[in-house]
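For consistency, the fold was encoded as tokens, which produced the following:
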Amino acid sequence: MKVSNRVEENPASATITVTAVEVPELTEEEQRDRLHLERRVERAFFEAGKALMELRVRP
């Protein structure tokens, strides 16, 4: 992504150039891996939330 140098002068007039790229579909194995990793991240956030709640209730 490219932003013009005039942003410092007037951010509202910034020009942003974006290049689109075509991304191939995921294979079944890649989809399976992605789902597995998303579930691991979700579980990690859940566990972190539980840990924070536990810390809050400690005297």
About this structure: The first strand starts at residue 2 and ends at 3.
